[in-house]
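Structure in, sequence out. Go:
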């Protein structure tokens, strides 16, 4: 068997895989008409944001993460909060899913995240918060940023 006889099937397989990936990957502009339609109905999309400073509880057994939620109408949806923190050469992380009722307007919700192995510590952490409030188009909303954990 020669290199040339092996190379042709590999190249053909690679091209087919690339074409399939492109065919099934949604374009970035696919959600633009949905957002425009929601805004045309005066149904502003909810927003969600990680607060600047969270709080350590129970000697690091939990990180209380402030999450700001803004809705143009009353909604109820699940919010997922992920926290990661590097302390020295170790990593601390945890994830929590919580049901949130968002009244019309802006409100702050405190969500407790429990670390998986090691306790959280005072200092810098990274938070990711996401939700799919199932507005008429189930548009996912996400915020990710560095924030501080304080005692």
């Amino acid at each position: 068997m020669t290199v040339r006889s092996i190379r042709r099937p590999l190249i053909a397989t690679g091209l087919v895989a690339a074409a399939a990936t492109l065919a099934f990957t949604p374009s970035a502009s696919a959600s633009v008409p949905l957002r425009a339609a929601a805004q045309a109905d005066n149904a502003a999309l909810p927003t969600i944001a990680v607060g600047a400073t969270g709080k350590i509880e129970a000697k690091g057994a939990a990180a209380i993460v402030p999450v700001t939620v803004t809705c143009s109408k009353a909604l109820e949806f699940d919010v997922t909060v992920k926290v990661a923190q590097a302390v020295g050469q170790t990593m601390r992380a945890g994830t929590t899913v919580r049901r949130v009722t968002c009244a019309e307007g802006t409100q702050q919700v405190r969500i407790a995240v429990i670390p998986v192995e090691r306790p959280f510590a005072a200092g810098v952490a990274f938070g990711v918060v996401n939700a799919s409030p199932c507005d008429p188009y189930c548009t996912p909303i996400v915020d990710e940023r560095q924030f501080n954990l304080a005692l």
